[in-house]
Amino acid sequence: MVLARRIRYGFASLTAAMTICTATANSSPVNWSEIPLPSLDGGQLSADDLIGHTVLVVNTASMCGFTPQYEGLQMLWERYRVDGLVVLGVPSDNFGGQEYDSNDETKTFCEVTYGIDFPMLTQQNVKGDEAHALFAWIANQAGLAGQPRWNFFKYLIDRDGNFVRWFSSMTTPGSRDLQQSIEDILYAE
User: What is the pTM for the complete model shown?
Assistant: First the structure.
């Protein structure tokens, strides 16, 4: 009897989570021009840099066990940018205090250690009531299960600004699943 209730509860929870993911997958597209995107290089990232491109948004941190994923993110950027992919890094200190205190330190670390030249924002909150507008939109699209729970969560947005899917920190940039998802958008007829 107890086991039957647990199975029924587990199935109900799974069904609810699937419903959330399905409902949010068809939500409205992001209008990049309305979201402030303060660039790590200074100024604002141009909305023109994102409009019409497939965008992989990643919340990053410089002192995390997942930080070596920067290398793979740079490789994705180099491999697919000519086909329309933009990797957008968003440094955050929300998880374990694993980001530098200043944007200059973060920029220097990324450039010197990993040769990062894909666009990055200034340090932002990526969760909760203080989340940057981009991550507030992502949370609405991805549902509870897809909200960042650690550094290096990845969010794929198509060229029309529609949320496609999310990947956890455990999904590396070299993952065939991630790369196939990117290619499915980039090379769709």
Answer: 0.85
CATH code assigned at 22: 3.40.30.10
Range of the domain at 122: 2-186
Burial class (CB in 10 A: 0-12, 13-18, 19+), 188: exposed
Strands lying side by side in the sheet with 54-60:
85-91, 54-60, 154-157, 163-167
DSSP for 119-164 reads -BBPP---SSTT--HHHHHHHHHHHHHHS-SSTT-EEEE-TTS-EE
Domain count, the chain: 1
Query: Is 110 an annotated catalytic residue?
Result: no
pLDDT in tens, 62-109: 999 999 999 999 999 999 999 999 999 999 999 999 999 999 999 999
Which tokens sit at 39? Answer: 């660039």
Options 45, 55, 64, 73, the catalytic residue: 64
Report which residue type is found at 69: Q
